[in-house]
Amino acid sequence: MNEGASRSTCAVVKATAMLGAPAHARSHSLPPEVTSAGRFPPRGCAGPRFWALFPQTGIDSEAMTCLVRTEPLPGTPPLLIPGDPYSVCVLLRGYAEPEGDRGAVRADGSVTLIVPTPGPGGRDPAASGPGSPRGAEARAALERAAAGPVLVDTAGPWSRGALLEALSGQGLAPGDVGLVVATHGHSDHVGNLGLFPDACLLVSRDLCLPGGTYLPHGLAEGRPLRLGPGLEVWATPGHGGAGDVSVAVAGTALGTVLVAGDVFEREGDGDGWRELSEDPAAQERSRRRVLAAADVVVPGHGGPFRVVRGDGPGDDRGAGANPPET
Predict the structure, then answer these.
(1) Cα of 237 vs its chain's centroid, Å
(2) Please, is 139 exposed, middle or buried when counting C-beta atoms within 10 Å of its C-beta (0-12, 13-18, 19+)?
(3) Residues 6+ apart with CB under 8 A from 200
(4) Is residue 74 classed as helix, strand or coil in its secondary structure?
(5) Residue-range domains of the chain with CATH
(6) pLDDT at 252
(7) In the chain, what is the straight-line distance between the N-terminal and C-terminal CA atoms, in Å?
(8) Which of 156, 163, 126, 168 is nearest to 143 (CA)?
(9) Is 270 helix (H, G, I), strand (E, B) or coil?
(10) According to its UniProt record, where is this protein mainly located (predicted)?
C-alpha cells in the first residue's frame, strides 16, 4: 500500500537478493504435492521440474495478456509449493480491508518463504559474471545468503507475532533466515526488518541509511539478480516508484512462481491499483510482464493466483520464461 515512494533502484545491504526464469505445469487442479499445511518436505522430496514451452526471447507480453485469465490458488497459509531447486511457502496472506466510513483501509502485506532444495548441482555458474570487484563481492555474498532460507517481505510491525509464529511453524527462527528481500519500502511490507539483523537485505534505496555499505547489483542496467537455477530478482517498477522488485522462482510443482509485492494488489484488482501507484504507466508495464512470465503470482494484499493462458483445454500453456524488461 502507498506510504512513500522509492526514489531509485534497489541497494544491497551486506549483499542482495534474487530469483525466476523458465518452467511450468499445466493443470487446473492443485497437484497433490502442493499442500496448505505443514513444513517443507524432507530433503530430497522436491516437486517435479518443468521446462518453458515458449522461447527465451520474442514474447510479446502485451499480446500475451489478451490470452490470459487468472484463478485463485486453493488453500490457506502456510501454502507450500515444493520445487527443485527451490520450494515456496506463502507464510502470511496479505489483505486490504475498508475500515470505518471515511475511506480508511486496514492493510498488511503478504510474506513468502523460499527454501533451497539441496542437491548435487551445486553453485550455478550463471550466477556470477563479469563485473567490477564490488559487483563480484555482491554476487558472492548473495550466493552465501541464498544457501539458506530467503524471506520476501516481512509484513507490518503489527504482525510481528504472527510472523514469528509462522516461521516457527516451519521450524525456523529469525536467525535462520539468510536473506530478506523487500519488494518496496512501505511499512506494511518492511515493518519487521528489525527481526533479521544478521540477514543480508535487498532494500530499495529509500530505506538506505547514511554510512552503510551498499553493494552494486546491476538492476539499474536492466539485468535480473541471479543466484542459481531459477532464482532471480526482477525490477518491476511502479507501485512504490522506480525501486520496486519482484522475486521469481522457477521449477516448482506449479511452474514459475512470481512473488510480486504490490505489482498486483490481489487477483482481480481491476483498475483500483492505479490510485495507489507512484507510476501507473510503469506499473502497467510491470503487470503485463509478470503475466507473460508467471504461472503463479503471489500479490501484495491477497491470496496467490494462477495465470492460465489460451482459450481452451490444452492451450493453457504458461510463458514462464522472460524476465521483465526495464
Answers:
(1) 13
(2) buried
(3) 12, 13, 14, 15, 16, 17, 141, 142, 145, 178, 179, 180
(4) coil
(5) 10-309 (3.60.15.10)
(6) 97
(7) 22
(8) 126
(9) coil
(10) cytoplasm
Dist. CA 187–CA 2, nearest whole Å: 9
pLDDT for the residue numbered 151: 97
CA distance 284 to 290: 10
Note the pLDDT of residue 35. 58
The pLDDT, as a whole number, for residue 149 is 94
pLDDT tens track for 103-159 = 777 888 999 999 988 765 444 433 444 444 555 676 777 778 888 899 999 999 999
Q: What whole-number distance in Å separates Cα of residue 322 and Cα of residue 308? A: 16
| Alpha carbon 203 to its chain's center | 13
Low-confidence ranges of the chain (pLDDT < 50): 2-31, 37-65, 121-132, 312-326
Using CA atoms, how far residue 87 sits from 39, 164, 296, in Å, is 11, 20, 13
Reported as half-sphere exposure (CB side, CA atoms, 13 A), residue 291 has a value of 26
Among candidate residues 234, 240, 200, the one with its CA nearest the CA of residue 220: 234
The answer to whether residues 128 and 1 touch, using CB atoms and an 8 Å cutoff, is no
Question: In a 3-state reduction of DSSP, which class is residue 221?
Answer: helix
